[in-house]
Amino acid sequence: MTDHRNRAETVDLSSCDREPIHVLGAIQPFGFLVAVSPDWIVVRASENAARWLGHSDADLLGLPLSDLMDAEAIHLIRGHLQALRGPDAIDRIFGTALQPGGSSFDIALHISGGSIVIEAEPSVSEHLDAGNLVRSMVGRLQQTVGFDPFCREAARQMRALTGFDRVMVYRFDPDGSGAVIAESARSGLAPYLGLHYPASDIPKQARALYERNWLRIIADVEAPPVAVLPQRDPEGHPLDLSMSTLRTVSPIHIEYLRNMGVAASLSVSILRGGKLWGLFACHHTEPRHISLERRTGAELFGQMFSLILESREREAETAYEASSRALHDRLMGALASGGTSLENITGFLDDIAGIVTCDGIGVWVNGEVTLRGATPTAEEFAGLVRFLNRTATSRAFATHEIGAVHPPAADYTERAAGLLAVPISRAPRDFLVFFRREIARTVTWAGSPEKPVTLGPNGLRLTPRKSFEAWTEVVHGQSLPWSAVDLRIAEALRITLLEVILRLTDSAEKERKTSQERQELLIAELNHRVRNILNLIRGIVAQSRSGTDSVEDFAGVIGQRIQALARAHDQITTTNWGPGSLRDLIALEAEAYLGERVERVRLKGTDVLLEPQAFSTLALVVHELMTNSAKYGALSDTSGQVEVAWERDAAECLVVHWRESEGPPVKPPTRRGFGTTLIERSIPYELKGEAEITYELTGLRGRFVVPARYVRAAPVAPAQPQRGRESTPDLDPIALSGTVLVVEDNMIIALEAEEILASLGARAVDMAGSVYEALRQIEASRPSFALLDVNLGSETSLPVARHLSKIGVPFVFATGYGESFRIPPELGTVAMIKKPYTADTLRRALASGAGRV
Question: In this structure, what are the phi and psi dihedrals at residue 399, rounded to the nearest 5 degrees?
Fold first, then answer.
């Protein structure tokens, strides 16, 4: 099995007393690597990169990438970098010449820290359609029935794809050890099927790397590694090669493969839920290198196998869980209907035993023991409960080897080797315990699992074992392991028993009593508020009779005042009878009167929240002020204005100023109606605040003071999330709006541009992949702005740019050619951004309107 370290790092095993061994960054010799900084300067390279690219070692570092690769290759690389997403994203390009007239290479791209890592290896011309091939392989895989045939067919398909002598499906156990569960091998090779390997054969850091990087190849175990220069950056850090396709492996693993008689290996991860489930382990007895394109097909097949495997396992788990849930629900219904107490659970033990697959069940309640099926004795069970109470866990506890955690249990493994304990009360706990019998089994190891500590070429204790002859061991004292589904079912049962059904105690009775008191209080409060509202409406009806000349006028005044109260009530109840916004109150009232002419009411001040009592009172005051202004004041003609301003004074009271201007001359009223009374008296009377009205000739003036206890600061509105990978500052609304045209022949980059432009304010984004399609879309619907990729395969977007310039539509160029592209003089000054671009880059281009970004 493989032993890949996840970077150039220090390997330190805890049982070694010697100095740790430094594994420096290196790659395999069949390819080369260059790492470039974001400004496209080569900052690191492998030793053989100079030979591949025709430069000396001394001259290579510090060169612009354009001195090593032609513009077309760099443009292609820039485009693929634009499509990378996620911290461990990798992209690949096949059959690309890096220099004019040069050989074709397969390229792998990824980001490592602050560097862009470009790896290349000579292309192998084999006309492989990896996507179609994998589709056919997956089709055969999906026709299999059963787990074992499924894995066997996967190994057979992987061997046919890769051409390796042996392909194994290797599955990890929870303790890190693993076993070969399926195998396809050429005739004459000794079978590995069924062999187990200890966890030390694939260290923890190697398993962690497999979760990040799906594929690793060792084409020749005897090939000397090629160092990456310089080995460390100025800060002393090595280049992180975790996601490298060419990265070499630990010399410990090379020795391991030699001991197995393996000359070349390939491994493809199998993940379930993002966690390492197993591997496709491919071995060859001679050096073997397969192309990056074929390895990509193997990686894709491994990913599809992982998805199908997860789907099949989830289907089985879902069926088991659904069956247990149905039984659980029926049992809980019976318990609930009978008002069962904790002590009476023993009558349902046979039903509970069917919820989780087990051989026996026991319950401990208040020192009383009840057992069913294959279980320890009552005395043994009592000792087990004392152990469980010492574990101090409030969740279900499971082990498939009781004797390993509770030594006395070694005496009864034939009856109970594994347990799943469910606590059903608080400490000292009562327990419901499921038991499973011992399953004695013979495990065949690939050599002794006890790895000897010996002195070898890599130091003490780091020498892999040399013997892989079958070594059998009979395992006793273990049961069938408890699955994650078993634990989920047990936890659901625990919650139901503890919190829903079996805790019908004094605390539950107290809760019911409290609930009843809350209900009575709520009814009383509701009755109080309804009476207040009815009294308020009755008062409005009675007071509104004066000053109205007809029944229609009377009905209209009452209707408007009640509507103002309704609007205020709606705003309060939106926040569950909480504080309401002053700005919203005034704006809503103004809109109700003015409609589209609402701009005649200007609001100034930082928004505040008013408590419900103050909110309702101020709503009536604002309504009357707005009504009077519409009838007699500034809003009664076409030119008048109303300004409402507010601030907090030194005592944190809210001071509101009402100022009318540019309307007809104002005269004091000859009689005092109900509306005037509301304006002048309601705030002092209801809120113990202040109200002052001045009838100036140029317009009404009002000053109102609401005490601080009714006023709160309004929370700052949260910023709207931006789409895309980066947050972008808001643009001026006129900077980007309407429909935007993206001319880009790469679909992934076009979709990325669509997200960025939408986040910058575009109402809609149209996409075109050619000059013809772009001109056709412009003819059909003129855009407000355009983003043009310079190169569109066999043509450029210059004809589109000239047409847009002619009809006056602004645009920006995007290019992967860097500074080598020159904008034709007839287009004038046009902004140009380089790939890979970001939302912030495009925003700056829009803001500047010209120049290079």
Answer: -150, 140
